[in-house]
């Protein structure tokens, strides 16, 4: 410390003012660097919350973050101005003190000073508590942004013109707010802050908007339906053994749905007839069927269920052909996972083994397998595991065939007619191939 004081006492007043100017400029550089880090790392959600609580500085931060390009332009402009000016003054001072060697000395000294005190130190502080730092610098940064606004706008125009020459759209952003939330939830799970069950529920709610009724519905081959012309005691027996509350009724052919029988309506009719099944007109007590297109979004269907106070609808394709059934429970399960009551049987859609492989039914949805195993099988082109294999193999494979797609190995275990019923799936990082 004495050596530094001694050094400054030997300097001329002009050189002392120059040195003090360099120190001041380095302080400004640290401010610009720290502000840039704090504001870019600040949580917009946290700022929004503080803003609702009446924090005016948080409101300024939100306003600054609303135009990041202008904010960064002003801070970078200020940072470069003070760094270049500080370097120029230091070079002049060192040349005056040490002659031609002063340029090299000034380069080394300024590199260390800028790196340590104007970059690493302020940015390290800002990144450790970005929200608090962002609130502190909001007012002066807002003033700086306003002062540099004309220059920044001119720079933005030049940058935009240069990018357009190379075919780059500077206004395009591939990330949406939902993408950021998905990424934050998934990262929280990987870091151990968010449990898998909580992550699945959150992502399920976010991804519901991407699903259609076709992705969620129960396919017609798995439907339990009642023949309206069957004997009364057989109808009652089938209803009670199904475990379902609502069952479609068909007449003449299975695709001709004429109503939906509700168990409560059947029990009321049985009470009125003192248990005499033969006196019940099952067609008359059935409710009018509600048909919806399979291309309806899951969110829209959920909203319609609420509006109509109904839990059950039949899905049809563009030609009006019956494709399946969609229930309120099916949509809710996409968020909370499988819901089973005391009447549901044991599901064996998936059997896991210690080597990481699983045995699954062919009609198991790809999303359900991904959720159960934390896998990333694509579900854009096919709803079920069997559908995914058929889509990628471009054929209906025979039993025993093995395929590798998307980093996973698929072995066909059983096939009935044109339907793959059971598969063995395991994760592998081998190149995709067809066996």
How would you explain this protein's 3D organization?
By secondary structure, this protein is of the alpha+beta class. 56% of the residues lie in helices and 15% in strands. Strands 8-9-12-11-10-13 form a six-stranded antiparallel β-sheet, covered by helices on one side. It is elongated, with a radius of gyration of 34 Å. The chain contains 17 helices and 13 strands.
In short:
With 435 residues, the chain is of the alpha+beta class. The chain has 17 helices and 13 strands. A hairpin with a 5-residue loop joins strand 6 (312-316) and strand 7.
Mind sketching the topology for me?
Layout: H1 2-9, H2 13-41, H3 44-52, H4 56-65, H5 68-98, H6 102-128, H7 130-165, H8 177-190, H9 196-207, H10 213-216, E1 218-219, E2 226-227, H11 232-242, E3 246-251, E4 253-262, H12 263-272, H13 282-285, E5 291-293, H14 298-308, E6 312-316, E7 322-327, H15 328-336, E8 350-352, E9 358-361, H16 366-373, H17 385-393, E10 402-405, E11 408-416, E12 419-427, E13 433-434
Parallel strand pairs: 2-3, 5-6
Antiparallel strand pairs: 1-7, 3-4, 6-7, 8-9, 9-12, 10-11, 10-13, 11-12
């Amino acid at each position: 410390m004495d050596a530094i004081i001694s050094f400054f006492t030997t300097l001329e007043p002009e050189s002392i003012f120059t040195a003090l100017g360099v120190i001041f400029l380095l302080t400004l550089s640290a401010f610009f660097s720290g502000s840039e880090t704090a504001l870019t790392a600040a949580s917009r959600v946290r700022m929004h919350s503080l803003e609702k609580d009446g924090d005016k500085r948080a409101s300024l931060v939100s306003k600054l973050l609303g135009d990041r390009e202008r904010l960064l332009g002003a801070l970078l402009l200020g940072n470069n101005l003070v760094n270049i000016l500080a370097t120029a003054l230091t070079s002049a001072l060192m040349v005056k003190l040490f002659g031609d060697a002063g340029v090299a000395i000034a380069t080394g000294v300024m590199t260390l000073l800028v790196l340590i005190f104007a970059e690493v130190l302020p940015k390290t502080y800002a990144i450790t508590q970005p929200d608090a730092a962002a609130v502190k610098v909001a007012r002066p940064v807002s003033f700086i942004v306003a002062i540099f606004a004309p220059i920044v706008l001119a720079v933005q125009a030049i940058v935009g013109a240069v990018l357009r020459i190379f075919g780059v759209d500077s206004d395009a952003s591939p990330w949406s707010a939902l993408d950021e939330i998905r990424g934050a939830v998934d990262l929280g799970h990987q870091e151990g802050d968010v449990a898998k069950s909580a992550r699945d529920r959150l992502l399920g709610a976010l991804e519901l908007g991407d699903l259609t009724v076709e992705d969620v519905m129960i396919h017609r081959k798995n439907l339990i339906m009642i023949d309206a012309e069957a004997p009364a005691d057989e109808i009652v027996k089938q209803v009670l053994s199904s475990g379902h509350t609502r069952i479609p009724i068909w007449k003449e052919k299975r695709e001709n749905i004429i109503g939906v029988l509700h168990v409560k309506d059947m029990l009321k009719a049985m009470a009125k007839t003192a248990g005499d099944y033969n006196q019940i007109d099952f067609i008359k007590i059935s409710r009018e069927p509600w048909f919806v297109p399979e291309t309806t979004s899951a969110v829209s269907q959920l909203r319609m269920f609420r509006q109509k106070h109904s839990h059950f609808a039949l899905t049809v394709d563009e030609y009006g052909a019956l494709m399946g059934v969609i229930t309120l429970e099916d949509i809710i399960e996409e968020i909370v996972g499988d819901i089973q009551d005391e009447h549901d049987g044991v599901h064996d859609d998936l059997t896991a083994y210690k080597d990481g492989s699983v045995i699954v039914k062919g009609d198991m949805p790809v999303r359900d397998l991904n959720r159960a195993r934390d896998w990333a099988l694509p579900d854009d082109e096919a709803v079920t595991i069997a559908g995914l294999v058929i889509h990628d193999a471009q054929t209906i494979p025979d039993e025993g065939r093995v395929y590798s797609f998307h980093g996973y190995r698929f072995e066909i275990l059983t096939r009935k007619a044109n339907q793959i019923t059971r598969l063995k799936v395991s994760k592998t990082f081998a190149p995709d191939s067809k066996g």
